[in-house]
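User: I'll paste a sequence; please echo it back and then give the predicted structure.

Assistant: Echoing your sequence first, then the prediction.
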Amino acid sequence: MDFKEIKNTKHYIYDNKEEFRITNTTLPVRHNWRHGEEGEWVFTDDGFVCQILRKMDISNNSKKKRICIRTVCGTFLAKDKNKEMLGEEGIAENIYTFSGSSKGSEAYDNRKRNSRELLFARYVASGIGALKAYKLAYPDSRSSNYIKKRTDRLLKTETIQKMVSQEIKALLEKNDATPEYIIERYKTISDLAERDTDKLAALRDLAKMAGLFNTEDKKSEQVTIWAGFSPEQLEGVKKHGEPELIAHAEKNEKDEKEGNS
């Protein structure tokens, strides 16, 4: 729970409905803040609870009226579906502007966000489940629904994908596991494995490395994690005479389940 004091009046934002109910046992909470009325309590897009302080019409250059909603999170256009009201971002520095903050603080927020995203990418690259990686990178996050949405969204962005790839590459180099070394080990397995299934598995992964299986209608993404292992551990690719894949994870387009974190 947090609050912003305006003209000697405290306006609160609650972390969730349960916290709101401790002091507001009977007041209703509207699920869609975009349809709320002035004075009503509403859910933010990530499950926090705040009050609509002002609802008003403004006109753009073409004199077309647009409905604006103001809360302690800032001012938002009700019909702008691309802009979410997020309690996780906290109380806006300036609730009277659409950005919620000045240009200087926006630049600071961008730097802070980028550093958090890099930390998230590093955790993912090290083999930690995406949901757990998000919680570690953003320890103030509380809403499980918000965490799942944000994790899924981050993993789909090109920026995060590049960050993860760069971090995995750095970890591989740190452990002397160059791409040439990995390919050589795969080829050794495919040549020496006694079982056809092991040979096929190694050849399939080699083919993927060569880009032979890349298609536009690919339904899932396979990621083999070698990061975090020493050269001695990487030598254990072949264990007790049987090929062994150190770490393998398959990520479908569906949301990652909590149990995988």
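The two ends are 27 Å apart (CA to CA). The first helix runs from residue 17 to 23.
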